[in-house]
User: Fold these one by one.
Assistant:
Number 1:
Amino acid sequence: METEQPQGNTRTVVLVITTLVTFMVPFMTAGVNIALPEIGSEFAMNAVVLGWVATAYFLASSSLLVPFGRLADIYGRRKIFAAGAVIFALGSILCIISRSEAFFIGSRALQGIGGAMLLSTSIAMLTSVYPMKQRGNVLGINAGAAYLGLSAGPVIGGFLTSHAGWRSIFWLGFAIPFITVVVVLWKLRSEWAGAKGERFDYGGSAIFAVSLIALIYGLTSLPDVLGAVLTLAGVMGFIAFAWWESHAGSPLIQLDLFKNNHAFVFSSVATIISYAATYAVTFLISLYLQYNKGLSPEKAGLVLLGTPAVQSVFSPIVGRLSDRIEPRILASAGMAVCTLGLGMLMFVAQDTSLGYLVASLLVLGVGLGLFASPNTNALMSSASKQWYGVASAALATSRQVGVMLSMGITMLMLSTFVGRVVITPPYYGRFVDAVRIAFIVFTVLCFIGIFASLARGNVHKVEPGAQK
C-alpha cells in the first residue's frame, strides 16, 4: 500500500536524494576506473585480479537488481533505498581500510550490493511520488545527474588520486550515502510498497541471479570457449527462470508485464540496444587517442568529455518535453541521431583529425540526451504501481546487459583483428581496423534500435494506476 504524502515537500526530498545517489554511482565507477593503475600497484595485482575490482562490483550489483526491486515493492522502497545507502557507505569505508587485494575486492562486492539496492529503488521512488505530467521532467534531471557523474568521475577521480591518493575517492562514496541516510531519516516519512503483503520468490531470485551472472561473465569472456559456454548457460537459465515464474504463486517478475505490455518490452529492448551500441565508444576512442594520436590519459579524457557533457545538458530539457510529446517520438529521434554519430565514427582512420572525432562524439551525446529520459519515462509509465520497483530494476538490468554486449562485441573485434598481443606501433593499423568494424556493428545495432523504439507505441494515452 502507498502512504499518503505531502505534495511538495516529499517530492522535493525524493528528488534530491535520488539525484545524489544517481550522480554518485556512475561517478564512483568512473573514478575508480581511473585509479586502477594506482590500486593495482599498491596491492601488487596482476591484470586478471585487477579486472575483478570492477567485475566484483558489477556482478554483485547486476544479479541483485531485480530481487531488490521486488523486495522494495513488498516491504517498502524507502526502506530498501536507505539500507542500500548504509551498505554502500560501509563498503566504501572497508575499501578505505583495505590492506589486501581479497579484502578490497570483497569490499567492492559489498558496494555492489548497496548499489543494487539504490539503483533498483531510486527511479521507482520518483515514479511513485510524481504524477505522469511531471514525470519526464524529474526523470530527465535524474538522467542528467547520471551523465554528470560519468563526466566528473575521471576528472575528479584523477585529481584526487594524484593529490590525495586513491582512497580519497572512496571518502566521497561514504559521504554522499551518509548524507542521504540522514536526509531520509530526518525528512522522509512516507513509504511506498505497491505489493505489500505478497510473498518473495526466493527460488526465482536464485535462478535469476545465477543466470545473469553466467550471462554477463560469459559475454565479458568472449570469444573464449568458457565465455561461449557461460553465455549459453545464462540463456538456458533464463528459459528455466521463465518457466519457474509462470508457475510461481507470487513471482519475482510478473510475466504479464512483458506479455501484454509492448511499451515495457520495447522500451527494455531499446535500452539494451542503446547501451550495446554506445557504451564501448568511450573505451575504443580512449585507446585510439592514446595509441594512435599519442595523447596523455588526461588529454584523452578531456576529448571524451563532450559526449557525457552534452547528455547532462540535454537530458533534463528533453525529459521535460517528454511530458508533453510522446516519449516514443523523442527516444526514436535520439536513436536516429546516435546512428548518425556512430556512422561518422565508422570512418575513423590513422589520420582522422581530433576535430572530426569531437564532432562525432558531440552528435552521439545529443542522440543519447534525446533518448535516455524519454525512454525511461515510457518504461516506468507503462508499469503499474505495484511493479515500480521491479520495473526500475529491470531498466537498470537492461542497461547492464547492454554494457556487457557492447564490451563483448568489442573484445571479439580486438581478438579477431589484433590478437592477444600488447598493442604497439606495428599493431596500430590492425587496431584501427578493429575499431572501424566495431563501429559498423554498433551503427547497424543502433539503426535496428530505431524500429524497436518506434514499436513501443504511445504511453500518454493511459497511465496504469494513474496518479491524479
Note: The radius of gyration is 21 Å.
Number 2:
Amino acid sequence: MRSKLYAALALSLLISLNLSAFKKRTTPTPPKQSQAIKVLREASEGFSEVADSAIPAVVSIKACFEPGNSYDPNFNDFFYHFFGSTPQQSESSVGFGSGFFVTDDGYILTNNHLVKDAANIKVSLYDGREFDAEIVGTDPSTEVALIKVKGKNFPYLTLADSDKVKIGQWAIAIGNPFEFKASVTVGVVSATGRNRLGGLSWENYIQTDAAINPGNSGGPLLDINGEVIGINTAILTKTGGYMGLSFAVPSNIAEHVAEQLFEHGYLQRGYLGVRAQSLTPDLAEALGLDSHNGIVVVDVAPDSPAQKAGLEQQDVITEFNGKLINNQMNLTHEVSLLTPGTKVTLTINRNGKVKQLNAVVGAHPMVQNTKETPPSISSQNSLGMTVENLTPAYAHQLGYDQLSGVLITQVKQNSQMAYASVRAGTLILSVNRQKVSSVAQFQQAITQASKNKHVLLLVRYGKITRYITVSFK
C-alpha cells in the first residue's frame, strides 16, 4: 500500500515538473521592437482613437419615398448610373445612408440625393436611439443636405479647413455601407479639386482610396485629428462596388452650403455670366500669347455682371480675386461661393496686355429667391414626370450645352409621358410652341395648356429633336 502511495506521489511530482518545464519553454520572449514597429502601433492606436471619438456622432439615415417619387439606389454612390437605369417603382421605396451631427442641438449634414423629396426620414444613433428628422434644406448642385432632429446634447463633429488638405495625408471614412453600422475604413487623400466627374454641377471633390460603398453616402471623411474634411458622396465604379476611387464634398463647401440652408433653406449662388475653356499651348499660340496659363473667354452672357465689367470674348482670365485660374470649374467654384453683391477683381490678358476689371457678383438666374420655390422643383401635373432646371453640369453631360429648356429627371410608369415613350434625360424645349428655360416657366405654360385636352411639346433626347402630343387626364 505504501509503495503504491510513493509511486503516485512520484508520478504527480514528475507531471508537475514536466508542466513547469513546458510552461517555461512555451512562454514567448517579447520581441525586440524597432522604432518602425512603435510608429505603426502608435498609428493604429491613433486610428482607433479617432474612431472611438467620432462614431457616436455618425448616424444611420433611412429615407422613405412615396410611389412615383422613389429613391434611386443607383444614385446613392455611383456616377455611371446618372439619370437612373433602374426601373422606376410603382410602390414606396426606402433609401439608406449616413450622416453626422455638426451641432449639439440636432443639425445633421448628409447628401441631397439621400433625403430629397423623402416622405419621412428616420435617424438612428450608434447608441440605439431613433429620431424623426425634418429637412432644413437641400442643394442638388453640391449634393449637400441639412436635416434636423429634436433634442439636445448630441455628440457632434468639427469641420476642418479643407483648403489645407494635402495629397497623401491620412483619410478615415465612417458610415453604414450595406447597412452595416459604424464601419470604419482608412486610406489616403489621392487628389484634391477633382472635377469632370459627370454627375454634379459643383465639382471640386476630394478623392480618396478609403473604401466607400453604398450606404456610406453622407458620412464623414475625417483627418487624423478626427475633424471632418469632407462628406462622402460618390464612387466611380463599373461593378456597383468599391474600385478605389471615392469622392467627398470638401468641408469648406459643405459648411458654406449648410449656413445658407440654415438661413434661407436654399443656396444663394454667385453668378458672373461667362463661359470659358482651358488655354492650351496650341490655343495660346493661335491667340499670340506667350503663356498658356488661364482660361479663354468664349461667351459672355448679355446684361450679365461679366459684360457690365467689360469682359470680352477672347479675353484670358488669369486670376480671380488674386487666385490663379486654370480651368472653368476653378472660376465657377470661386464665384459660386460668393454672396450676390460681392465685389471682385478679374485679372485678364487682352491682346497681350494685362488688365484688371472690377465686377459685382450677381445672383444665379437658376436659383429662385424664395424658400417656397427652391432651385430644383418637381412639376406636379397629370403628365406624370418630374422636371428640373438645366444646370451647366447636366447640359455638359447630356450634350445640351447650346440649348435651353427643362430637364426630365423622372417619368412615372403608366403615365402619359411613359406612353409617349419619353424617358429621363429628355430636354423639353417648348410647350405649345412657347419656349421654356426654367421650371417656373414650364409650370406656367403647363397650367395654361391644361385648359385644353392636349399639349404640344418640343423635346430633345440625345441628338434627336421631335414634337410629341400628350393628353391631359
Note: The domain at 385-471 is CATH 2.30.42.10 (Pdz3 Domain).
